[in-house]
Write a structure and sequence with these properties.
heterodimer, A: alpha+beta, Rieske Iron-sulfur Protein, 2 domains, five-stranded antiparallel beta sheet, B: mainly alpha, two-stranded antiparallel sheet, two-stranded antiparallel ribbon, 21 helices, globular
């Protein structure tokens, strides 16, 4: 290791450095506190160190980058005031993108990027690249310092009487242990059961109920029109909801009921139904199942009508709707709950009761 | 001195009289930082986080965390008149009606993706080079905490636009919370304010996303960096580098220019990317309703492994005494991630305990010199990659026309079989590389030149290693350890060893780490070997001189050796043959 002023002594194998390096910022040879210790590492001079022309070329490059950055800022402002968000532009590979977004992004990005590129080029080509060395300091304290810390602790302990006043110490610990309890208690009202319809019900009970009741007409999702059995062809699938879903949504200002009582209606040849969750829960081969996956609650509508398999798009749980909605593959453990259906006097499909088991993901109290 | 410098000097003086800052500057402006490309990974994390903060502030000016239903009347035509939440409507407003809003939204998303990706790569760099060893274990633990927070920040952010994808993600999250034994149902109701999707929870997630999580990240990042500063950066082994020094460039001006410039590079690339590549086009997915989902839904990349774990898990569920335990959700979404992050946080302490290593380490270890650790790391990468693949199993199935059931079964078996296999292969590769290093240290490197000696023997010329490379390879000496001996059941006086079981476990673990270690040469052997090679090379020197005097290097033949006076082209050769008088060799 040697001082900067004697640098080059470690480079015996290399070309000797020129007496005075050329870069615009040739490192001044500091004495005293400004001095750095050059590391014992092989060093090769860069072209910009040896050739004044190369150094000036680098200087021009960097200047250009900083100038480009300024130009880009001007272009950004022009793009901001002149383009609107409906214009699009086609870029090969990337596709159709908003012209404003592209213009703003490219100008803004380039303005920032060129500052960085210029600064790094400056550091790499014009600032000194001779590695320097520093010693690491010892992290651990000396034995004297350890002893001093221990002595101070002892003094503090004595003076406080923390060891001597036993009753004070114990009650203090008790108080400190109890004081967070209010903070935990306060969490309780993050949810309160304010819905009159759900009054007095626990979370588990709320999860176990849906809006379906005996005689409640089934309506098609989207049109909200009741549906007749003959509207569903064999092999068809219809997403459906209870008739009063929109009133419920208006009343409670949320979509909770939709997330529980959404169903799918599928129709198959009655001969193909191998089993159902209850005797005669279908209507002329039309079966109603919950639409909410029993795994973690994704809505399901990928139905293969030849195999009667229902596949969840989130985690690929597969249910056999011709066989009580049982799980045949994937991570779901529970069958899809079936809704018993029939028709009313006008010939529209209706539910004959609520689901007989909770819909959606499992929970602790479900049993 | 310019006027600016005078003003700066006066400010420094003013501050110094109040803070004593000049003492600090005098010491730290020359602080040395080692140079290596992989040290930029941490910088990318910090800079993308700053970009996330800047763009995030802009987004909060317009975003409304409300699930109140409104009718969309903005300028995106396909959704005009559609009923949606204010959260989704304000996201559309940012994307279509605020100039540059889409750019900032995409910058926020891209920067977040880069943030998490850089965290992952940075963590691997620190792991594989052993940078987490004493005295930096605590900083590693902080880093693991930051990973968890980053995932939380990403997931809550993904949920805010309230488009179809984000709502589905939340629904899955709720399903997971609900599966926690005993408290799950209540926890889900408290967190989500009742049933899903509820009304109030968006403002809660928003609070977590813009205040709680970034606040914690900021606090931990600050401590993380202060520790890096105070403990000084680790450095790779090399010429002139020891455990007691730091070799590199001073903070001012080199690191200020490089690191400061690099911030602008990262910022600029994120802006360019966001201008050119659309990310998370929420307007295509439509507003969220709990009874709709699109096929092929994908979470952001960093959540993919958790989703994959959920997908490949067999459907186990236990019902006992009227209560349900959903192993099919608990294991992949709670237990496995819990084990992974806990093991990750504890790893430095486990390794130090098992190997009995109490030294301070400021020189990084080359991954090959720690074969077991490198094997464990690769094992983790394989495990993670398989889960990640599972998260895209539907895309894999449709893209390559494979059965989704077959892929799932492959992953279920692969997750158990492939990581240990990866461990064994990696460890063997590392040991092989170590043997090769040992060979080079003792015998120099093969020059690829075959020489015929005067008595007819052919030898390959070995050359001494360059000093810089020798220093790197010789770092294997530093890494070498011997396993802890097996403990005795009783001591010399026949007293039972109370710690026998623990000591035995420790000795076994130590054997697991070091049993197969390649014995490195000693420094003296290396010196002798290199001197021997140099000596041989010296002996050959006259031979080279003799040969080289007879040859010229023809530049346009790519340096092919050519005898002086020999013809350069076939035409010349023919010409020379005609002359028939060729010089003897």
């Amino acid at each position: 290791m040697s001082d900067l002023t004697t640098r080059g002594s470690d480079n015996s194998g290399d070309k000797p450095l020129p007496e005075k390096p050329h870069g615009i910022l040739a490192r001044p040879e500091y004495e005293g506190p400004g001095a750095l210790t050059v590391a014992d590492v092989e060093h090769r001079p860069r072209r910009s160190d040896l050739d004044p022309k190369a150094a000036r070329r680098v200087e021009r490059q960097i200047t250009l980058m900083f100038l480009l950055s300024m130009v880009m800022v001007v272009l950004f402002v022009i793009a901001y005031v002149s383009l609107n968000s409906t214009q699009t532009v086609y870029i090969p590979v990337l596709g159709l993108i908003g012209a404003q977004n592209v213009a703003l992004g490219v100008t803004f990005g380039a303005a920032i990027f060129f500052i960085g590129a210029g600064a790094i080029q400056w550091a790499k080509k014009l600032m000194p690249d001779v590695e320097v060395v520093q010693d690491r300091h010892r992290l651990a304290s000396t034995p004297d310092q350890d002893a001093a810390a221990a002595a101070q602790y002892e003094r503090g302990k004595e003076e406080s009487g923390f060891a001597a006043y036993r009753i004070l110490r114990r009650t203090l610990i008790g108080a400190l242990a109890l004081f967070p309890i209010p903070l935990v208690v306060l969490v309780r009202d993050m949810w309160t059961n304010t819905d009159p319809a759900l009054e007095g019900l626990s979370p588990a009970e709320i999860l176990s109920e849906t809006a379906w009741t005996d005689g409640l007409p089934i309506v098609v999702d989207g049109t909200y029109q009741p549906i007749r059995p003959e509207d569903i062809p064999v092999g068809g699938l219809v997403s459906a909801l209870p008739e009063n879903i929109r009133e419920i949504q208006k009343e409670f200002h949320n979509l909770n009921e939709r997330g529980k009582s959404a169903i799918i209606l599928v129709r198959m040849d009655p001969g193909e139904i191998r089993s159902q969750q209850g005797d005669g829960w279908d209507y002329q081969g039309i079966l109603a199942f919950s639409k909410i996956c029993t795994h973690v609650g994704c809505p399901i509508a990928l139905y293969e009508h030849r195999t009667h398999h229902l596949l969840c798009p989130c985690h690929q749980s597969t249910f056999d709707l011709a066989d009580s909605g049982n799980v045949i593959f994937g991570p779901a453990a529970r069958r899809m709950p079936q809704l018993p259906i029939g028709v009313n006097e006008e010939g529209f499909l209706v539910a004959r009761s609520d689901f007989q088991e909770p819909v959606g993901p499992s929970f602790w109290e479900r049993g | 001195m310019s006027t600016t410098e005078k003003a700066g000097g006066a400010t420094a003086q003013y501050l110094d009289e109040r803070l004593g800052s000049n003492k600090w500057l005098g010491k730290n402006l020359k602080k040395v930082f080692p140079d290596h490309w992989s040290f930029m990974l941490g910088e990318i994390i910090l800079y993308s986080f700053i970009v996330v903060l800047i763009t995030g502030v802009f987004l909060t000016l317009f975003y409304k965390p409300s699930l109140v239903e409104v009718i969309y009347e903005g300028s995106y035509v396909p959704l005009k008149g559609v009923e949606m939440t204010e959260a989704y409507a304000s996201t559309l407003q940012i994307s279509f009606d605020i100039r540059g809003g889409l750019l900032i939204r995409q910058m926020h998303h891209w920067a977040a993706l880069i943030f998490v990706a850089a965290i992952a790569v940075h963590a691997f760099r620190v792991f594989f080079t052993g940078a987490f060893r004493k005295p930096r274990e605590l900083n590693w633990v902080i880093g693991v905490g930051l990973i968890v927070l980053a995932l939380g920040a990403g997931f809550t952010g993904y949920s805010l636009p309230d488009d179809l994808l984000s709502g589905t993600g939340l629904q899955i999250a709720r399903g997971i919370v609900q599966a926690i034994p005993i408290v799950g149902t209540w926890a889900a109701f408290l967190l989500f304010d009742g049933e899903f999707p509820g009304v109030d929870f968006m403002s809660r997630i928003y609070m977590a996303h813009i205040l709680l999580i970034p606040g914690l990240i900021l606090a931990l990042v600050t401590v993380h960096l202060m520790l890096v500063w105070y403990q000084k950066h680790t450095q790779f082994p090399g010429q002139g580098r020891t455990n007691e020094n730091v070799v590199g460039y001073p903070l001012m001006p080199i690191y200020m220019a490089k690191a400061g410039g690099f911030f602008f590079i990262v910022f600029g690339i994120i802006a360019l990317l966001s201008g050119l590549v659309n990310i998370n086009p929420v307007w295509i997915f439509g507003p969220y309703t709990p009874d709709q989902v699109t096929a092929g839904t994908q979470p952001d990349w960093y959540i993919g492994w958790l989703d994959g774990a959920l997908r490949v898990m067999p459907n186990w569920e236990t019902v006992a005494f009227g209560y349900t335990i959903s192993w099919n959700i608990l294991i992949p979404a709670v237990i496995v991630p819990g084990i992974i992050f806990t093991a990750m946080a504890l790893y430095p302490f486990l390794e130090a305990w098992a190997t009995g290593d109490k030294r301070e380490h400021h020189l990084l270890e080359r991954p090959r010199n720690a074969p077991v650790r490198t094997g464990i790391g690769v094992m983790a990468i394989v495990f993670y990659s398989l889960l990640w693949l599972g998260g895209g199993n539907d895309l894999v199935a449709t893209t390559f026309d494979l059965s989704i059931n077959a892929i799932t079964w492959f992953l279920r078996i692969g997750l158990i079989v492939l990581p240990p296999l990866a461990f064994i292969i990696t460890k063997r590769i590392c040991l092989g590389l170590q043997r090769k290093d040992r060979e080079k240290l003792l015998h120099g490197y093969e020059s690829g030149r075959i020489l015929r000696l005067p008595h007819g023997e052919f030898i390959e010329v070995h050359e001494p290693l360059p000093k810089a490379q020798q220093a790197v390879l010789a770092s294997m000496i530093e890494s070498h350890n011997t396993p802890l001996p097996a403990p005795a059941k009783t001591d010399a006086n026949g007293v039972r060893n109370k710690r026998y079981r623990i000591d035995k476990l420790r000795s076994r673990l130590s054997n697991f780490y070091y049993r197969d270690a390649v014995a490195p040469p000693t420094m003296a052997e290396i010196e002798a070997g290199q001197a021997h090679v140099a000596h041989e090379a010296e002996l050959e020197a006259p031979l080279h001189e003799y040969e080289e005097s007879n040859y010229v290097t023809v530049p346009f033949h790519g340096g092919v050796l050519h005898e002086q006076g020999e013809p350069m082209t076939n035409a010349e050769a023919l010409e020379a043959d005609k002359g028939s008088e060729r010089g003897t060799d």
